[in-house]
Every structure is written in structure tokens, then in C-alpha cells.
Amino acid sequence: MRILGLALGLILGLAGPVLAFEVEEQRFYPGTGTRVLRIISTADLAVFTPYLLAFQQQRPDIGIDYTVTSSADLAAAIRDGAPFDLALSSAMDLQFQLANDGFARSYRSPITADLPDWARWRDLIFAFSAERAVVVVNAERIAGLPLPATRQELIALLRDHPQRFHGAVGTYDVRESGLGYLFATKETRSTDVYWRLAEVMGRLDPQLYCCSGQMIDDVATGRLAVAYNVLGSYAAERLARDSGGRVQILRMEDFENIMLRTAIIPRMAQQVEAAGALIDLLLETGLRTTADDWPLPPLGQSGGVDEAGFSPIRLGPALMVYLDPLNRRAFLAEWENAMEQR
Amino acid sequence: MTPTGSIGRRLTLLLAGVAALLSFLSWSLVTGLAREAAERTQDNVLVASATTIAETLRSEQGEVRLELPYSAFSMLDAIGEDRVFYRVTAAGALLTGYADLPDPDKALLPGRVHFQTGDYSGEAIRMVAVQRVVLAGAQPVPVTVTVAQTRQGVDEIATEMSRLAAALSVGFFVVAVGLSAIAARTSLRPLNEIAAAVSRRGPSDLRPLRRAAPAELAPLMSALNRLMDRLGQSIRRSEDFIAEAAHRVRTPLATVRAQAEIALHTISDETERQRMRGIIRAVDESSRSAGQLLDHATVAFRADDLARDPIDLADLARQTAATLEATAALRDIRLHLDLVPVAVAGDAVLLDSALRNVLDNAIKYSPEDTTVTITLTTVGKMGRITITDEGPGLGDGPTEMLTERFRRGANTAGIVGSGLGLTIARDVVVAHGGHLDLQHGEHGRGACVSLVLPLA
């Protein structure tokens, strides 16, 4: 028995970390030198390519290997010691937990020092973009109805027109999407109507998504009338602009979730210097005050409070509360109860 | 006298040393207290967090259940950016959290908070564990909630406070050193004042010091006064002795001279007469020296309590010149008086003594068949008696030295003298508030001695 255990241990040990994560996209940007910066990220290539090209303009010698995966897989990969030099994620809670549990390296530069306190934690995590969760509607599908400005109004709208919205309401599947889970847990604490909204959506056979992009696409095609808690990046705004008014982005006035997209340098990183240089570039774009045409919004006003008085989700140990398996199980049970009332 | 270091500097250094010690002590005290306070704050937050978690423990269908409250974690970033670890175990089995967190090093008691410091994940942590017994079905299950946090926030607060305390301590030290210097100077002021009072005094002022002095300086003052008193007595005794001795020597000398004169007249042999004249001259000199010693003692005695009688210097000069007319005539020296009335206030005996000694010197050092001139003038508020001769002058050395006691000019070889004449003259005019003025004569010949006295 003991020998068998030892053998098993040896095999597992020799096999090295099993890289159990699903690669959604991957691209290699060759550099003139031999150094390769391996990035694992939740941001699509479409969103992130401009940053990578800008970086290669500064440092043409460094090649970039860019891998896109889900936030949960990203966190798991870093935990398993996957050889990445930089991890960029929209799931603040998972990123925070990685840093808290010692999977991040500290990094300091003049630019990180410029970062406001709320946008970094311990020289381990750096926020480079603040993005808000919005409601995206298809104007054609809700024609004749008042546009909701608060969750109460959204609830009333959905409740009063069940035929029109049946099967046409989309939101994150919080079981799959780390970001959706983060938004949902944050909302349960920030507003008392979240569960009521969930129940109302649950009665309408909601479509559940892993990612914002697909939700926006489905709103644009008219498959969805309303998508709740969509990440309102510039891409979504551009799409809304280009749709000629068919896709509209609504910001809720009662409460807004603002998420920080964060970067960490994993403990296993080898190209630490290059990773730091890319963090500096991301922070520069995050701290910009001009309306440059970068795909991701900047961090925004000083103090982290936006014009409507909402501040980004705070980087701190409280982010780990809902990551606790017991809490997660309890939350998901309640969520499933509310969402799946067929 | 070699100074053995300054009391003021020593006092300042001592006080500065004390200030440095106190500054250092207060710095380390504040640093320690700040750390203590920060640690206690962290402990309190950790206890609150662990207690909040423990309060959510409940039993559901015979199993221990809990929900991590949001507040239990959100309160943990109150101190700083510290990493948080937690663990909940029921009867030794992990319910949730970090399985490899160190176990409490002591048996836990329900309701008691256990504190522990250790290492986890490469950093020092502070750990708090509380235990609660939960009834799971019929079975009481001890549940342990452990919350741990790294100590970076505590370190930062302690470092910041320590830096602040260091700046304050340095400031305190600088101020204390400044104040020490002032305090040292202030407390030494009476001593400096006494020293200044003593050094301001004239050379013969031996009166006791009468001034308020701090208690610590009273022994020094009375010792100084006793010393001056003894010194004064000693000086008076020796002056008395000199006066007595001179007086006693003069009388027998007069007798010897008279006898020698008689003998001179009775001797016919020229060689014997020559020898007898030598004896008479020597006796004269001795008598003169004794007279000068007596004068000197008189000056010292009378100057202490100087009379201020109105005196016309012209009268005085005339009388003094008259007494020396005979001596001058012996060597065919003419005394030429050029006088105007000059009124001064003083002691006639002393002034006569001064003038006589200067005139006597002039006659003694003048070659035969020359003139000694006494001129009386007033310059501003001073009267001036100038005695000019055609003798060898004052020599090349510094003229001030000639007024030292028993000091004689370099060019006086061959002439008998005691070296007291100018000393007596100077002491007298100084006692009267004037001074003695020594100048070389015109055309490099002769001496020009002036007694300068304030007008009445």
C-alpha cells in the first residue's frame, strides 16, 4: 500500500503540474529576440491586441504568447503553477485570492507608485481598468415600453410583460463565470432587490452566458431583449453606437457595479522584468486622462468614485468571503433556486 | 595656569548627554508603545472577526454549518494591506479554509480567545482561535474558528510612528541642548561677575568683595576675602618693616656722616682725605636709598587713604626745588623754574616725594654745569610738571620698564642708585588719578619726565 502510494506520488510528481484549463484563444506574437512573455488573460484577443502591439513597439525584442481562458481556469492554472509570466483577469476576487495566498510576486515601479491606493494591493495586484456592469437592451424588442433606470423599474418591466420577455432575458451563469459570480455576490450585499430580480428573471426562462461578448451579440441580433449585468466596455459602447440605436446601454441609477481589471505577476513567472514593463504600460493607459482610443476604459476619477457616486469593488480580504466553498455552495443553491423555476 | 576644561562646556555636555539619553528612551518607549498599540488593535480586529464567524455556526440536520459573514473579512483590512487566512474545523475535521494553517499550540477552552504568533506562507502571522461547542444532533461538537493575518500593517504603523517619534526626539534633543547651553551660561554668570569684579580692581585694592553671591559661591567669596585680608596685612607689615628699617638705618648713618666730616677736617694726608670723602659719599648714597625706601613705604601707606588737600603745584615745585638747590649747586647744575599756578587736590607729602625723586634723579644723572628745567603747564583738564635734564637720557629700552621697582636704565653704570625713584613718582601720580610720562629729550639728549595730574 505504501509502495503503491509512493509510486503514485512519484508519477504525479514527475508528470508535473497538470495544466487543466480550457484555452479559448491563443496567439503568439514573435519578437526579434528569444525572450517570450507568456500572458494568461480573460480579455479577448480583439480587446487586447492593441496593448500587445503597443508593448512590442516599445520592446520589439520580446515575443508574446497570449492565452485567453476563463477567470476560474486562470486562477486554477496559476495555483497549479502553470508557467505564465503575467495573469490579467476581470475576476478581482480570484486575483485577490491568488495574491493573498502567496501566488503573486511583488512588483514596484514609479508608475505603480502613482497608482491610487484603491487600485492596488500590497504591490501584488494592480488595477488597470475600471469597467461597470450595465444593462443592454434591444430597442426594437422593447419598443413602446419605458426604458428602466433602476432595478425596481426593470423588475416591474419584466413582471408586467412576461410574454414579451420570456426566453429573451440574458445574464451571466454565475456558476461558470467568475465575473458574473462577483457581480452577483456584490449585488446581494449592495441592493436588496437582487433576489427579487433574480426570481423575476427565473420565471422568464433566462438565457445564461459565460461571457459578456456573446450576450451583447445576442442582444444585437435580437435574440435577447434585455441582457443584465453586461460588462460595459468600450467594445459594447461601440457596438451600441454602430447599431444605429437598436442596441442601447442602460446604466442603473440605484446601484452600479464597477469592476477593476487586475494584473498580477505569478510566483512562477520567469520574465518578471518584461511582465513588469507590460504592467507599467497597462497602468499608463489605466491612468490616462485623455480620451485615447484604447479598448478598455481608464481607472477614472481620483478616489475611485464615479460621477454617479459609485466606487469600484474594493480590493481587500472581503473579496474572499464568497470564494469560500461553503459560502459559494450556499449562494449558488439560492441562485439556482431563484433562476431555475421551470 | 592650565585650564582644565570649561565648567560651562562640561555642564552643557552633561545636560546634552542627559537629553540624548532621555530622547533615546522616549523614542524607544514611543516605538514600543506604538507597536504594542498596533498589535493590540490587530488582535482586537482578529478577535472580532473570529467571533463574528463563530456566531454564524449552527447545526442543520445533524451537521455543523456556517456562513462566512462579509463583515468578518471586510473588517480585516482596517489596519493595512494584510493577507488573511482562516480555518474552521469541527471536531478536528476541516469545514472550510486553509487546511495547513498552524494548529493552536495549546488546548482551546470554549469562550476563551487564543492568540498565537507564527509563520505561514512565508510571512509572520498573528493568529486568533476561538472555540464554540455546537450541538450537531445530540452530539456536542467543538468547532474551532481560526483567523490569521500577516503583520505588515502593524509593521507599517509601528515604523511610521517610530519615525515620527525619532523626528520628535531629535527635535527635543536639539531644543534641550540649546536650553542646556543657556542654563549653563546663566548659572555661571555670578561666577563670571565675581571674576570681572576682581579683575576690574586696581593693583593695590585689597578691600573685601561685598556683593550678593549664590550660596555655592559664598565659600569662595569668603575664602577670597580672607586671602585678600591676609595679603593686605602682610603687605602692610612689610611696608611697616621697611619704613622702620629705613628709619633706623638713617639715624646712625647721619651720625657716621657727621663723624666722618669731622674726621675729614682733622686729616691732612691727601690720600686719607680722599678715602674719607669716599666714605662720606657712600654714606650719602645709603642715606638716600634709605630715604627712598621710606618714601616708597610712605606712598604705599598714604595712597590707601589719600588726602585731598588743595595744592598749588607751583608752590610745591618751588619748595622742592629749594630743598635740592644745594645738591645741584655742588655739581654746578642750575635749576630753571618755569612755573604757572596749577591747582590740584592731593597729598602734599606724597607729591613732594614724587617731585623730589624725579628731580633728584635728574640732578644725579645730569653732567656737571648743565641745567635742569622744571616746567609747569596745563593741558586740558590735566596739570603737567615736566622735569627736563641734559643727562644721558632714558636709554634704548622701553620706557615703561623704568618705573618697575628696582629697575634701572641700561645706561646708568657708574652712578649709584636704587631704582626706586621713578617707581615712587609713578605710584604717587597714579594714586592721584594721573600718570607718569617718560620721553626722550630733544635732540636725543637728556630725559623728559612729566608728572601728569588731574586739575582740582
CATH class of the largest domain in chain A: Alpha Beta
Q: Which structural class is indicated by helix and strand composition of chain B?
A: alpha+beta
Provide the gyration radius of chain A in Å: 21 Å
- Estimate the mean pLDDT confidence of chain B: 85
Overall pLDDT level of chain A: 85
CATH topology of the largest domain in chain A: D-Maltodextrin-Binding Protein, domain 2
Number of strands of chain A: 12
Largest sheet properties of chain B? 5 strands, antiparallel
Helices and strands of chain B, in order, run as HEEHEEEEEHHHEHEEHEEHEE
CATH architecture of the largest domain in chain A: 3-Layer(aba) Sandwich
CATH superfamily of the largest domain in chain A: Periplasmic binding protein-like II
Instruction: Give the neighbour order of strands across the main sheet of chain B.
Output: 4-3-7-6-5
The major pleated sheet of chain A works out as: 12 strands, mixed
- Largest interface by Cβ-Cβ < 8 Å: A-B, 18 and 24 residues
Shape of chain A: globular
- State the end-to-end distance of chain A: 49 Å
Description of the structure:
The complex is a heterodimer of chains A (342) and B (456). Chain A is α/β, with parallel strands linked by helices. Chain A folds into two domains: 19-130 and 260-314, Periplasmic binding protein-like II (D-Maltodextrin-Binding Protein, domain 2), CATH 3.40.190.10; 131-258 and 325-339, Periplasmic binding protein-like II (D-Maltodextrin-Binding Protein, domain 2, 3-Layer(aba) Sandwich), CATH 3.40.190.10. Chain A contains 13 helices and twelve strands. Chain A has helices at 2-15, 45-58, 71-79, 92-100, 110-114, 151-160, 162-165, 178-190, 194-202, 212-221, 234-242, 272-286, 325-339, and strands spanning 25-29, 36-41, 63-68, 86-89, 104-105, 120-121, 125-138, 169-172, 207-209, 226-231, 247-250, 258-266. In chain A, strands 1, 2, 3, 4, 5, 6, 7, 8, 9, 10, 11 and 12 form a twelve-stranded mixed β-sheet that branches. Chain A starts with a helix and ends with a helix. With 456 residues, chain B is an alpha+beta fold. Chain B folds into three domains: 7-159, Beta-Lactamase (2-Layer Sandwich); 206-305; 307-456, Heat Shock Protein 90 (2-Layer Sandwich). In chain B, the strands form four sheets. A five-stranded antiparallel β-sheet of chain B has the order 4-3-7-6-5. In chain B, a hairpin with a 2-residue loop joins strand 11 (371-379) and strand 12. In chain B, helix 4 packs antiparallel against helix 5. The longest helix of chain B has 49 residues, at 7-55. The two termini of chain B are 43 Å apart. The mean pLDDT of chain B is 85. The chains are: A alpha/beta (342), B alpha+beta (456). At the A-B interface, helix 13 of A face helix 2 and strand 4 of B.
